[in-house]
Amino acid sequence: MVEHRRAPRIRVGEAIQVTNAITGEIAGRVGNLSLDGMMLVANRPAREDTLYQLSFNLADDRGRMHTLEIGMHEQWTESANVPGQHWVGLRFIDIGSDEQAVLNAWLARSRQTAPGT
């Protein structure tokens, strides 16, 4: 399979809960992450072409947790293989420099430890 995305996606090995930063509701969990977006595994479909403010935690190289709150734009939503679950593709549209640095470091570490790398 040929990858056509701008940035390679890293599959997440642990459950990373995602929260709607506006409502406080759990939106789902991270399926995969890249420099410019993520796939959310959600219990309901996202609204088409909608902007979201979502937050989740990532650990740094010392194991300290950092909360990333990121503005995202829904790109696509489809039913997952599990009944009641949906895959939601989101593009990052607003991320602070501190959050970007945490994400970049997490992605770099995850690439080094991914099987087959």
Automatic annotation (TrEMBL):
> Can you tell which superkingdom this protein's organism belongs to?
Bacteria
Q: Which residues belong to any copy of the PilZ domain?
A: 4-108
Q: Name the SUPFAM superfamilies for this protein.
A: PilZ domain-like
Annotated Pfam families: PilZ
Give GO terms: molecular function aspect only.
Answer: cyclic-di-GMP binding
Name under which the protein is recorded: PilZ domain-containing protein
This protein's species is: Tahibacter soli
